[in-house]
UniProtKB/TrEMBL annotation:
This is NAD(P)H-dependent oxidoreductase. It comes from Pseudoalteromonas piscicida. Residues 11-186 form the Nitroreductase domain. It comes from the Bacteria. Belongs to the nitroreductase family. Pfam families: Nitroreductase. The keyword Electron transport does not apply. The keyword Secreted does not apply. Its cofactor is FMN. Keywords: Flavoprotein, FMN, Oxidoreductase.
Length: 211
């Protein structure tokens, strides 16, 4: 992709406040999630899951915990990114197995990797694990927004929700998951107040420092 194409995608996308009634085909949603999975993550661990909610009754229950943001109900699909709160040692062991299946390296290299990762992450307690997983999920969000734009899928990244209530409604605790952010996706409605508005961004002088 050329830079100009990328720039036009970045300008095409915006945080949609009102979706039309059009729905996105499931194979497109599957592709979007697959592309999101190609996002970079620390150590490659991808310590999060993407939960797809298509059921209107569940969306309705979540709307009650979304500070009146109607787009949580009125969308094609609602995606919830949740932090993987299962023990990091197990996540690392799973990753090393996947790594072995994809690379042909000496056994010693795998065991050094495993020990190095376990050592680097051993200090993370519950809250810091959540924060770390959340950072990785936000990185995947960036990939998702760009991937969605490339497929002409609209989205709104959202953290303005009661995350603990989402965990309850979705019964995430027994799955060792905790809500981080949500992304309703669909097709923008032409009456959306934000449609066609110009971007508000820092000027290069404010964004950029050269040392
Ligand atoms: C992490 C994150 C959380 C956000 N939470 C909300 C939200 O709860 N509700 C909302 O309407 N927009 C939310 N936004 C959208 C931002 O307001 C929007 O991305 C920003 O104003 C820039 O505008 P643009 O994305 O339309 O270019 C969120 C964006 C991000 C990245």
């Amino acid at each position: 992709m050329h830079t100009t194409q990328l720039e036009s995608l970045l300008n095409w996308r915006y945080a949609v406040r009102k979706f039309s009634e059009q729905s996105i085909a499931q194979d497109k949603v599957d592709k979007l999630i697959e592309l999101t999975g190609l996002s970079a993550s620390a150590f490659g661990l991808q310590p999060y899951k993407v939960i797809q909610i298509s059921d209107q009754a569940t969306k309705q229950a979540l709307l009650a915990h979304s500070y009146g943001q109607q787009k949580v109900l009125d969308n094609s699909h609602l995606l919830v990114f949740a932090a993987d709160m299962s023990p990091l040692t197990s996540q690392i062991e799973r990753y090393i197995q996947d790594f072995k299946a994809n690379r042909d390296l000496d056994e010693l290299v795998y065991s050094q990797m495993e020990h190095g990762m376990k050592d680097a992450l051993k200090a993370l307690d519950g809250e810091s694990q959540y924060n770390w997983c959340s950072e990785q999920a936000h990185l995947a969000l960036g990939t998702l927004l760009l991937a969605a734009a490339s497929m002409e899928i609209d989205a709104c990244p959202m953290t303005g929700i009661d995350k603990a209530a989402y965990d309850e409604v979705l019964a995430l605790s027994p799955l060792n998951l905790k809500t981080v952010l949500i992304v309703p996706i669909g097709i923008r409605d032409s009456s959306d107040v934000n449609a066609g508005t110009s971007k508000v961004r820092k000027s290069k002088d404010l964004l950029h420092i050269e040392v």
